[in-house]
């Protein structure tokens, strides 16, 4: 008898694409994710009771510089304790008041409730980070916050002018996939 639930892995037969196509941010307190079993992907998302779009209970699309977004994760172990470090990096073009306001908003989120992220990869797969409620129950905290961003204007006309945004979060597992469509998330934007 095994002391754990063994599971195999079948690699995809064909090409695998990298990179991020879309990112949306949300307040984790506003949304509930539905999951059939503890290991299955999330199958649905809905506003929680009391959260309304009029009061900010929605998803916000982040229009980053094309081909300049990635998600990295690293697993570490201390005894039997496991940690997954998640890092999301993307470029936002043009230093402006709009960029300043965006940075202030995500700084505030990192100090209060954390930032929720819906990430669509170029492959079409969607992953969720920073979720707080699954099957109407609170799950252990998964706080995503801005950490290590930088930016500038560049020195000449064709150098990047804007911010290199870095969001980080630590959790006890890798991200859960969302089996719904991106259109179902757009309906919440």
Summarize the structure in words:
The protein contains two helices and 14 strands, in the order E-E-E-E-E-E-H-E-E-E-E-E-E-E-E-H. With 189 residues, it is mainly β. It has one domain. The strands form three sheets. It has a five-stranded antiparallel β-sheet, with no helix packed on it. Strands 5, 6, 11, 12 and 13 form a five-stranded antiparallel β-sheet that branches. A four-stranded mixed β-sheet has the order 3-2-9-10, with no helix packed on it. A hairpin with a 2-residue loop joins strand 9 (133-134) and strand 10 (137-138). It is globular, with a radius of gyration of 18 Å. The model has no long low-confidence stretch (mean pLDDT 92).
Helix content: 10-25%
* Number of DSSP strand runs: 14
Beta-strand content: 35-45%
Overall tally of domains? 1
H and E order: EEEEEEHEEEEEEEEH
What is the C-alpha radius of gyration, as a whole number of Å?
A: 18 Å
Global morphology: globular
Strand order of the biggest β-sheet: 4-1-7-8-14
- Helix/strand-derived class? mainly beta
The largest sheet, given as strand count, sense and whether it forms a barrel, is: 5 strands, antiparallel
**Number of helical segments?**
2
The first-to-last residue Cα distance is 48 Å
What integer is the average pLDDT?
A: 92
Low-confidence stretches: none
């Amino acid at each position: 008898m095994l002391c754990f639930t063994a599971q195999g892995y079948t690699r995809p037969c064909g090409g695998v694409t990298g990179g991020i196509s879309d990112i949306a941010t949300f307040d984790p307190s506003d949304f509930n994710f539905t999951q059939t079993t503890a290991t299955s992907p999330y199958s649905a998302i809905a506003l929680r009771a009391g959260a309304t779009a009029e009061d900010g209970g929605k998803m916000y699309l982040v229009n980053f510089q094309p081909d300049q977004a990635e998600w990295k994760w690293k697993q570490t172990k201390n005894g039997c304790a496991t940690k997954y470090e998640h890092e999301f990096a993307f470029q936002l073009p043009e230093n402006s008041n709009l960029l300043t306001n965006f940075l202030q908003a995500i700084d505030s989120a990192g100090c209060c409730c954390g930032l929720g992220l819906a990430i669509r990869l170029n492959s079409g797969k969607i992953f969720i980070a920073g979720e707080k409620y699954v099957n109407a129950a609170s799950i252990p905290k998964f706080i995503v916050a801005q950490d290590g961003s930088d930016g500038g204007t560049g020195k000449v006309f064709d150098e990047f002018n804007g911010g290199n945004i870095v969001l980080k979060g630590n959790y006890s597992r890798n991200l859960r996939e969302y089996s719904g469509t991106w259109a179902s998330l757009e309906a919440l934007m």
